[in-house]
Design goal:
572 residues; alpha+beta; 2 domains; nine-stranded antiparallel sheet; 14 strands; signal
């Protein structure tokens, strides 16, 4: 799975974000930990770090069973995602170097290290906020005012990347607010957790926030307007999902845009998706962004975010309180993405075909990503990605180049994404809040299971489909607690568990208190080791359902019944 093809340039406009071709990097003894790995180096110990550990999953059982978690990422993608990588369900198409699985943390037994930690200690640790100080200041932002030398890649004594500026203080509409009740621009939303890895039962809780560029938050006179911002966010949601989006009723005459496309300006309660330029169908933003769109300084297209769009994604431990599962105060990681440039459908299609050609012409070549610890890494379709992660003491620090390369495989050329992102296309649309809330305001508990459309299989419940195809609830098939809850001895699903999941997906997604604590302790071992370059999966015992090496005879996965769906096929 995971095409290791070289990222290619698609013209002069892409040059600044191009990814270099070739090998690069260096290796060292496997037992060397990342604590000995300088933050500023771009040398890599795993030059295929963009291939996730899950892509080494063994897909055939000893009794001939076939397990297919691969379809969750590798799909017949929807335009303007031209990757169409559903064929990667069929084979491990790795370059020779990547045939060796270098995620060696998978094969460590941490039983003793986990047992040495008490429940009270790990709970105290994860409940300590490592993002904000007791007086409400953002710790990283304070540090970055006088950037530490070991973080200063270009030596100019200033931080050139993203400076955290989200307060994680949300109002009733999911907007992040400042201490003086102003708006930071960030807005939290609820979404259907992506299959497998991002289920809390497999190791972490998380959240995602979006922020559009300032012009999308302003009225025609350049003044901030929450009303304008809410409409533009809904328009972007409509574009990404390519469907109509319900909104609170608005007076279209205030904005001069026929939002519901009924042919007149009146009261609109939906954003009508009606974008097909070849047929003379166009949509528009409102406020200042409307004028900027008309002037050609920002763009609009189905399936694409406008320039300047930002995402913030915190990955956290699993808190347990009286048996209730929730997000921890402590962050494992803070991930950031920003769309820096615009690429048309033609640009994106040419890039996808160019990569296929590169892969065919140079099958042993690995990807090397443009960027560094400060500026972030480019995915060659307009986005830069950057991250912060715990140091050995639990404070957040910038990720190294290699630690950020870890993120790139899933955000570069993958069939499951919408404009390189996962969650906005999976955003909930509930009637009361339209999906705009943070998980601290509305737990996922009590959320009904959603459906998805699959080619040749019709509409199916998405999580049930994953369980059926994978015969487990994680890619590694190591989550025995979930298996015992959902599967009979013959591999069939337990009807009672599936029925319970229909009305409450937390039955599937949430671990028991004991498992949550165990996963927290296992990850804490990795933090103390600073061994992220060898894997971030919170396994206690060594994982067995994973290839250590992929030999020629292992190249076919054995999967013949492809599961075909697109990133925009969810039904809420």
């Amino acid at each position: 799975m995971k095409r290791p093809g070289v990222m290619v340039m698609i013209g002069a406009a892409v040059m600044a974000f191009a990814v270099a071709c070739g090998g690069g990097g260096s290796s060292s003894a496997e037992n060397e930990t990342a604590s000995k790995y300088p933050l500023l180096t771009k040398a890599m110990q795993n030059r295929a770090a963009y291939i996730p550990s899950q892509c080494y999953t063994i897909t055939e059982g000893e009794a001939g069973q076939k397990f297919n978690p691969c379809y969750s990422c590798h799909k017949n993608s929807a335009e303007p995602n031209y990757n169409n990588d559903d064929d990667l369900q069929e084979a491990y198409t790795f370059a020779e170097y990547a045939n060796t699985n270098r995620w060696t943390n998978l094969f460590k037994d941490r039983t003793a290290a986990v047992a040495a930690q008490s429940d009270s200690d790990i709970l105290a640790y994860i409940r300590q906020d490592n993002y904000k100080s007791t007086d409400g200041r953002i710790i990283l932002a304070e540090k970055l005012k006088s950037v530490p030398a070991e973080w200063d890649f270009d030596g100019d004594k200033k931080w050139d990347g993203y400076t955290p500026d989200c307060n994680f203080s949300f109002d009733s509409e999911g907007f992040d607010r400042t201490s003086s009740n102003g708006y930071t621009g960030w807005r939290a939303y609820g979404y259907a957790p992506f299959l497998g890895t991002f289920w809390p039962t497999n190791g972490s809780t998380d959240d995602v926030l979006i922020r559009l560029a300032e012009i999308f938050r302003q009225d025609e006179n350049g003044n901030f307007s929450a009303a304008v911002y809410k409409i533009n966010l809904a328009i972007v949601e409509s574009l990404i999902k390519k469907k109509d989006i319900a909104i609170d009723a608005v007076n279209e005459t205030l904005y001069g845009v026929d939002l519901d496309k009924n042919g007149s300006l009146g009261t609109a309660a939906i954003i009508k998706y009606d974008w097909l330029p070849s047929a003379g169908k166009y949509m528009s933003y409102v406020g200042r962004a409307k004028a900027e769109l008309a002037a050609g300084r920002v763009h609009l297209a189905g399936g694409l975010f406008p320039e300047g769009t930002e995402f913030l994604h915190s990955v956290r431990y699993i808190d347990v309180n009286g048996g209730e599962i929730s997000m921890s105060a402590r962050m494992k990681e803070l991930r950031y993405a920003k769309k820096m440039g615009w690429y048309t459908y033609s640009d994106l299609e040419n890039a996808a075909y160019a990569e296929l050609k590169e892969e065919y012409d140079f099958p042993t070549r690995l990807s090397v990503y443009y960027g560094d610890i400060e500026s972030g890494l480019s995915n060659t379709t307009g986005w830069i990605y950057q991250g912060f992660i715990e140091d050995a003491a639990g404070d957040l620090r910038p990720q190294t180049y290699e630690e950020t390369v870890f993120c790139m495989g899933c955000h570069t050329r993958l069939g499951a994404t919408s404009d390189s992102l996962f969650t906005y296309g999976r955003k909930y649309e509930d009637a009361s809040k339209k999906g705009w809330y943070h998980w601290t305001q509305k737990s996922i508990k009590g959320t009904p299971e959603h459906q998805a459309a699959y080619d040749g299989k019709g509409v199916q419940y998405e999580y049930e489909m994953y369980l059926k195809q994978n015969l487990a609830g994680d890619e590694f098939r190591e989550n025995e607690e979930l298996k015992a809850k959902f599967f009979n001895a013959d591999g069939s699903l337990k009807t009672d568990a599936v029925n319970a999941m229909r009305s409450d997906i937390s039955v599937l997604l949430f671990p028991s208190s004991s498992r949550a604590l165990m996963l927290n302790k296992a990850y804490r071992v990795i933090v103390k080791e600073q061994s992220y370059i060898y894997g971030r999966d919170a396994n206690v015992k060594a994982v067995t359902n994973v290839h250590k090496t992929v030999s020629p005879q292992d190249k076919p996965t054995g999967i013949t019944d492809f599961i075909l769906s697109t990133a925009s096929s969810l039904i809420f």
